[in-house]
Write a structure and sequence with these properties.
By secondary structure, the chain is of the alpha+beta class. The protein has two domains: 3-176 and 321-448, FAD/NAD(P)-binding domain; 186-313. The chain contains eleven helices and 17 strands. The protein has helices spanning 26-37, 72-83, 100-113, 161-165, 193-202, 229-237, 277-301, 333-337, 400-406, 409-429, 438-448, and strands at residues 3-6, 9-22, 42-45, 117-119, 123-130, 133-141, 144-155, 170-172, 186-189, 217-220, 249-254, 257-263, 309-313, 323-325, 345-349, 374-377, 389-391. A hairpin with a 2-residue loop joins β1 (3-6) and β2. The protein is globular and about 65 Å long. Residues 450-455 have low confidence and may be disordered.
């Protein structure tokens, strides 16, 4: 077996492929699928045993609403979810719904069907560079260290781990170094959703606009007029809850799981440095404590939850923002305000600048109206420091505020599709990823999409 020399050891090469995707999450799985659709040999290195990342391991469902027409890979995933009898459209909002088990299975199946390689339970360690290019990466597996060689590499780690070890400069947090707040999601089963829905309606709830038997959501934020607030305030006065439990509460039904809801909470208080491994670990402990209070409180207080119970805690924290690369172009909030267009614009975004609980944060721009959008340039995915590296995920090149808009799953998927296309273009035409003219990829997208959404 071929080996590479790493820290005075000969490390065996496990794969030698055309594209290596580090991280099999929201972006990584789509980037791999896109590369495989372009017929290049691809391996995904994933630290867990489930594809989907934040979507599946952090239980972040549904996908937030967007008016932007999704690209081809997004449609491919949705079509396969429908074949698994998972409804994705609630008939009212533009959210895209799923349940985590079905999505993980669908992503895995789509990749395997196309001949992709999956390396699960493999943690990224480091990379080796030669002449400004990444020659291989080192991963830690159940059998020790292995090397993976590739012609192109996709950093889909969300924490810019591959980029940082390859010498790419990064930024983190706002001007004060504070990152967005962490969530620790969970699921409860045994919920009588019809009873809950009727209770909310009787209380005069106007938050949930969905009129569909399989889709429902509830929320409570103090001072926002939510009908659940008096019940939570009573839970606080009775000693069942603490003040920190009331900061943010939200839950969504799960299509295909009739008595289950996924909770977009708790928000972990006081942790504003998501890059610190010790603080992340403390966030897990704190979040688990808060989950236990919430799951004990709801059956006592809210109709429909009488027989409910905790069935799952997320196996991954909900990290909204950590590191962001400094690429060839840094996308800014001014690009949001101006509804920016670029010759190399390869994806669109329209989500509002959604900053979660950062102290002293400046005033955020108003949300875009229906039909408005900004473009994300290809140059925000590539770097000066590593010629055969491309970035896909929440950590592309942007400012703190702009990242709060582009980080949602639909936008990340569209960016990731182009990352896979770029890897294939690089391999087929022997052009470094950071030298590809993004306008060529834009035209390629326009030619390949059934609806030319980039006119």
């Amino acid at each position: 077996m071929e080996t590479v020399f790493f820290f005075n050891r000969n490390i065996p090469v496990l794969y030698d492929v055309e594209c290596a995707v580090v991280g099999g999450g929201t972006a990584g799985a789509v980037a791999a699928l896109s590369a495989l659709e372009e017929k290049i040999e691809t391996v995904v290195i994933e630290k867990t045993i489930s594809l989907g990342g934040t979507q599946t391991n952090a239980l972040v469902s549904p996908m937030m609403p967007t008016q932007v027409k999704g690209q081809r890979i997004n449609d491919l995933i949705i079509e396969r979810l429908h074949k698994e009898n998972v409804q994705t459209n609630d008939g009212t909002t533009s959210c895209s719904w799923f349940n985590t088990e079905s999505l993980s299975y669908v992503l895995e199946t789509l990749i395997v069907e196309r001949g992709g390689h999956l390396l699960y339970d493999a943690n990224y360690v480091d990379c080796l560079k030669e002449n400004g290019k990444i020659s291989c990466i080192i991963v830690n597996t159940s059998n020790g260290l292995y090397a993976v060689k590739a012609k192109t590499f996709v950093d889909a780690t969300a924490d810019a781990l591959l980029s940082r070890t390859a010498g790419v400069p990064v930024e983190s947090g706002n001007e004060e170094g504070q990152n967005q707040q962490i969530s620790f999601r969970f699921e409860m089963g045994g919920i009588d959703v019809l009873t809950l829905r009727n209770f909310m309606k009787a209380e005069g709830d106007t938050f949930c606009k969905i009129d569909h038997p399989e889709f429902f959501e509830i929320a409570m934020v103090p001072g926002k007029g939510h009908v659940l607030e008096p019940y939570f305030q009573k839970g606080l006065s009775d000693g069942h809850l603490k003040e920190e439990d009331l900061k943010y509460f939200q839950a969504f039904t799960q299509p295909g799981k009739n008595t289950v809801m996924s909770f977009n909470c708790p928000h972990i208080p006081g942790v504003f440095q998501t890059t610190d491994p010790v603080l992340r670990s403390k966030a897990v402990t704190k979040g688990r404590e808060m989950i236990r209070r919430l799951t004990a409180f709801l059956p006592k207080a809210i109709p429909g939850f009488e027989q409910a119970y905790l069935i799952k805690e997320a196996s991954q924290l909900g990290i909204r923002e950590s590191y962001r690369i400094k690429g060839k172009y840094i996308l800014t909030e001014q690009d949001y305000l101006s509804r920016a267009r670029f010759e190399d614009g390869i994806a669109r975004g329209d989500w509002y600048i959604d900053v979660h609980s950062v102290k002293g944060q400046t005033v955020k721009p108003e949300p875009l109206t229906k039909g408005e959008y900004y473009e994300i340039p290809y140059r925000s995915l590539i770097t000066h420091e590593a010629a055969n590296l491309i970035v896909a995920g929440r950590h592309i090149s942007s400012t703190f505020l702009m990242q709060a808009s582009l980080r949602i799953q639909p936008t990340v998927r569209d960016v990731a599709q182009v990352a896979g296309m770029a890897c294939a273009y690089s391999v087929k035409y022997s052009v470094d990823l950071n030298n590809i003219d993004g306008a060529l990829l834009r035209r390629q997208l326009r030619n390949r999409e059934e609806k030319a959404w980039m006119e």
